[in-house]
Amino acid sequence: MPIRSREIRLASRPHGEPSLEQFSFDTVDLPDPGPGEVLVRNLFISVDPYMRGRMNEGPSYVPAFEIGKAMGGAAIGRVVQSKADNLPEGSLVLSSFGWREAFVAPAGHVQALDPQGAPLTAFLGTLGVTGLTAWGGLFKAASLQDGETVFVSGAAGAVGNVACQFAKLHGCRVIGSAGSTEKIEFLRSELNVDYAFNYNDGDPAQHLRQGAPEGIDVYFDNTAGPQLEAALSSLKMRGRVALCGAIAGYNRPVPGPRNLGLAIGKRIRLQGFIVTDYFPELPAFHAEAIPALLSGKLASHETVVEGLDQAPAAFLSLLHSGDPHTGKLVVRLGD
Ligand SMILES: NC(=O)c1ccc[n+]([C@@H]2O[C@H](COP(=O)([O-])OP(=O)(O)OC[C@H]3O[C@@H](n4cnc5c(N)ncnc54)[C@H](OP(=O)(O)O)[C@@H]3O)[C@@H](O)[C@H]2O)c1
Which pick of 141, 162, 166, 205 has the fewest CB atoms within 10 Å? Predict the structure, then answer.
């Protein structure tokens, strides 16, 4: 009996705002694994804002999804059939074969996962690429120093919440913004940020004047748009910006900051980065993050959505201001 797997495919490319029509579901019969291959059942898959860019055609830092083909993304699964000596049945693996229930692949195309006592979902969030993005953006791209003042936009989200937590662990004053009252409460009560504001409520520049009267040293930018403009006004001399994401403009372009000229006089460094730049730093990141998580100094915040059917809607929601998810959004497919 062949093993069957449901998968989500890109049905068409969006122009502007994507909708559920852009996705289709299909079922495939998986072949038996050949020599050196494994059959993996996914337990958790990740949905991320960067996937919006992969729905577009054209060159980017990551290949576009192909129309009619299963989409991809980070996933954690369990090996259920193995013809590879290094990955026996029962092994946990990380892969980029998300958006599907199961797959067959060469063992070299997946990565063995030893959870070391941490929850599995943390390896898609706080301890995974998401956490590395926060850590690399703060300490490598923006050279954050202990005790500085940092503003994090998208602070209640996957990358943002980890950035806030690392900055607090390093004795920084943290200002965080998010798009709903519930998220502001999350920033205050769960992340202990020093000043939290709803960027839809009032002028972000005014909020920054209140939260950091002497200015900010670092801005961790998840959004671009008006919050980048506000941050440029607030940044101190020789301030640094980690340009991580520009979600305010993913569905429709937003104007660039009208005050970019401030960067000249204030000698501001605007540093774009892609998390892959910091893959060589993964051991250093894990050396700090895993003990912090296991000792409770760092928390794994996540929202878990149940079932493959929910993945497209959950993904689309991420692209809207005030969407209800906090922390890393993951979709559970099995145990
Ligand atoms: N450079 C890299 O290598 C890298 C790696 C990973 C992620 N990223 C980027 O980092 C950012 C955060 O990603 P994530 O995975 O942590 O996602 P996330 O923050 O968990 O989810 C996205 C959040 O963006 C906010 N948002 C949506 N539309 C917005 C708008 N128009 N203006 C302001 N905020 C808006 C929403 O929060 P609110 O309710 O608070 O508005 C939403 O929950 C994204 O821009 C992503 O592309 C970059």
Answer: 205
d(CA 301, CA 330): 11
CATH homologous superfamily for 129-276? NAD(P)-binding Rossmann-like Domain (3.40.50.720)
25-84 residue pLDDT tens: 999 999 999 999 999 999 999 999 999 999 999 888 889 999 999 999 999 999 999 999
Contact of 161 with 301, CB cutoff 8 Å: yes
pTM above 0.90, yes or no: yes
Parse the chain into domains and list their residue ranges: 3-125+300-332, 129-276
From the list 271, 259, 275, 268, the residue with the least C-alpha distance to 237 is 268
Mutate to test the pocket of ligand 1, among 126, 159, 301 (most ligand atoms within 8 A of CB): 159
Residue 210's CB is within 10 A of a number of other CB atoms, namely: 12
Q: At residue 215, what is the residue type?
A: G
What is the whole-number distance in angstroms between the Cα of residue 159 and the centre of ligand 1? 8
For ligand 1, is residue 52 a contact (CB within 6 Å)?
no
Query: What residue has token string 């122009």?
Result: 15
Domain spanning 3-125+300-332, CATH class: alpha beta
